[in-house]
Amino acid sequence: MPIHLTSSHNPHIKAALRLEKRSERAQRRLTLVEGVREVSRALAVGVVPVEAFVCPELVDHSLLGGALAQLARLDAERRTHLFTVTPEVFAKLAVREESGGIVLVIPFLDARLDHLPLRAKPFFAVIDRPEKPGNLGAILRTADAAGVDGVIVCGGIDLHNPNVVRASLGALFTVPVVEAGATEAIAWLKARRIRLVATTPDASTRYTAIDLTGPVAIVMGSEAEGLSPQWLAAADERVMIPMAGYIDSLNLATATALLLYEVVRQRTT
């Protein structure tokens, strides 16, 4: 049976709140998930929360009835600690006003390069040192929609930032995603003969002018610094996005979407 918590000073609540800090997440290898879609998708793919906090007054049973039943089952099996909380306590846990009445504490995803799927013509996205969790979350949504085989994140914002989870709308759980160093990622991709296509404003070839139908990894850099010299040196092709106005760069998520859907366009026409 779930334990009812009425104080934000409860040790379980205080421990969950500390997961907003990157150092705490890294040390405990745990993060937070809130939101109807995010919670539903995490549970649907088999994520087993360490803890779950439910506010009965705020839960929409028509949307989360299945999630509640699953959490109750996991609690009965002693695989998850299930708590009910008051609206006041839940307001401390949830960042968004409409988060569905459930917050999960989940373990880090066990995702390594060798766990990424490899089909006949692999299609990967590499994100070098992303700076904003909203951008990384949006990229994961696009990667899911475009049918990307996996996303490799090299440095920058940590993958398990709760804002990445929120911005991805749960795509973090539907797209294979790994964190890896640039050296490791380059070696892994090269060993599998996956062509590296790097985007840089210094290139002279448009992104629509090269063949993207074979095994490919689209490599995107941070908005502030672009791609690192290591990725530019390793690239098989360098391409640019035409810019006709005064602005010299696009939002990272927007630029990534253009490149990923160019792969989709070429492979379906």
User: What topology, given as strand order, has the largest sheet?
Assistant: 8-7-6-10-9-11
Large-scale geometry = elongated
- Strand fraction equals 15-25%
The Cα radius of gyration reads 20 Å
Largest sheet: 6 strands, parallel
Q: Could you state the order of secondary-structure elements as H and E?
A: EHHEHEHEHEEHEHEHEEHEH
**Broad structural category:** alpha/beta
Instruction: Tell me the helix content.
Output: 25-40%
E-strand count? 11
Average pLDDT reading? 94
**What's the N-to-C terminus distance?**
55 Å
Overview of this protein structure:
By secondary structure, the chain is an alpha/beta fold. The protein is 37% helix and 19% strand. The strands form two sheets. A six-stranded parallel sheet has the order 8-7-6-10-9-11, sandwiched between helices. Strands 1-4-3-5-2 form a five-stranded mixed sheet. The model has no long low-confidence stretch (mean pLDDT 94).
